[in-house]
From TrEMBL:
Pfam families: DHFR_1. Keywords: NADP, One-carbon metabolism, Oxidoreductase. Pathway: Cofactor biosynthesis; tetrahydrofolate biosynthesis; 5,6,7,8-tetrahydrofolate from 7,8-dihydrofolate: step 1/1. The keyword NADP applies. It comes from Geodia barretti (Barrett's horny sponge). Residues 1-91 form the DHFR domain. It is an enzyme of class 1 (oxidoreductase). Its EC number is 1.5.1.3. This is dihydrofolate reductase.
Length: 91
């Protein structure tokens, strides 16, 4: 997070810390990741490998596992460990 409280800017990270990205990968492997559509759209790699990617969206044409509610997404999670990523969206 920046001193101004920014954790994302315009669908991107305003910084690049290799160690932070490696930690994110390590802790989220073999987990379920739930995110909103804008976060999905911002991912440089889709889907995130070795993780169950679930997107909360009303867009039925999205080519990823997606549901219209958080409750549905949690219900179908294949892993005990669930991560919520993104910012600004309402689940």
């Amino acid at each position: 997070m920046t001193e101004d409280g920014v954790i994302g800017l315009g669908g991107t990270l305003p910084w690049h810390y290799s160690a932070d990205l490696k930690r994110f990968k390590r802790v989220t492997l073999n987990s379920t990741i739930i995110m909103g559509r804008k976060t999905w759209d911002s991912l440089p790699i889709q889907p995130l490998p070795e993780r169950q990617n679930i997107v909360i969206t009303r867009n039925k044409s999205l080519e990823v596992e997606h549901y219209s509610s958080l409750a549905q997404a949690i219900q179908v999670a294949r892993y005990e460990r669930i991560w919520f990523i993104g910012g600004g969206f309402n689940l």
